[in-house]
Amino acid sequence: MSETETGARPGPLAGIRVLDFSRILSGPYASMVLADLGAEVIKVEPIGKGDETRNFPPFHGNLSHYYIALNRGKKCIALDLKSPEGRRIATDLARRSDILLENFRPGVMDRLGLGYEALRAENERLIYGSITGFGRTGPLADKPAFDIVAQALSGVMSINREPGQAPNKLGLPLGDMAGSIFSLFGLLAALHERNATGRGRHVEIAMLDALIALQGYLSQIYFVSGRSPEPVGTQHPSIVPYGSFPTSDGHVIVACLTEHFWHNFARCLGHEALIDDARFRVYDQRLANRDALHVIIAARMTQDTTAYWLDRLAEFDVPSAPILSIGESLEQDHVREAGLIETVVHDSEGDMRLVRGPLRFDGESPAPSRAPHLLGEDTVSILRDTLGYSPAELEALEEAGVIQGSAATSATGKSV
């Protein structure tokens, strides 16, 4: 849709073209954010099966929930990259692109003739982003990587559990997401640099590197003490009280990160004397006497309901929250009023609800999203409008199995 049709201003990346070879999650999330920011994103998928996530149930019509979640706002072209003609089309698109993103194992794009050095020779302004599991060098470089593998090797799983319980992966696919998020930092920084130099960069990020970088204070606990942090469940390794506390009918999150909030919480509990209790007066004393303090807190909070405590904690200005399900989080009033959920329409698949990007510019949300497209839905328009292919050339390429239009579109752009 145009700016006039949507009433929205172009995003800050309007005029930037992204050629996206990435699939599954680490990569597609990054390219989706670039689309949210106004870039034209052309997603390249293999003929026949497309992105592997197109086949993951449950489905909205013919579109997988997984694919929908990571591919709004993109155009889709289906190519046979193993054919010379398919590689030529990909190279032609790279010549006309600002950013290329891929997340294959090291060496795959080189073997296809689409590696950084080959495409830099065609377009020195191209910013080439690569997301891998473990980078191009080192003993793990060729190891297959998925989110849970990166989580295990990063140490995250060792602490994501209650004490004495089995290690557990994070519910969020943070290994994949971290790869995407850090790649965005690099791609946008390289785009800024190119404004001055006129030359692109090869931006590389490994999922494991990204998760190690996100350890934050946990790695420093090890460096300072020589001991790995122990699992504390919802609690905090060095701040008390902080975490989930039982009520008479459930649990409530309380987070007393500062002394001010600890004092407020003690008053909220009706135990103001705890503030001057030698066992709990300052951080290190509360940490050393965590178990004793938790017994006192639980004895009081289990006398009343979750609803009672949420009201009282708010009254005393204590950082707190109920523990919501995913559905409850999406339907809560604040999320709705913030405009984080939008409904988009696909011509054949109908209405679908999506989570919008969280960025705001001058108080405005991103422009309305395009619904994720069927496999090859934009093949014809991209080759016709971007590369100037004629109907006869498109038909010949489709007959040769080099390209694939969607089930609803032939190579000439006519409905079938």
Automatic annotation (TrEMBL):
InterPro entries, sorted? CoA-transferase_III_domain, CoA-Trfase_fam_III, CoA-Trfase_III_dom3_sf, CoA-Trfase_III_dom_1_sf
Q: Which Pfam families match?
A: CoA_transf_3 (PF02515)
Q: Does the keyword Transferase apply?
A: yes
What highest taxon heads this organism's lineage?
Answer: Bacteria
* Keyword Iron (UniProt): no
Keywords of this protein's UniProt record, alphabetized? Transferase
Name of the protein described by the UniProt record: CaiB/BaiF CoA-transferase family protein
Species, as recorded: Tropicimonas omnivorans
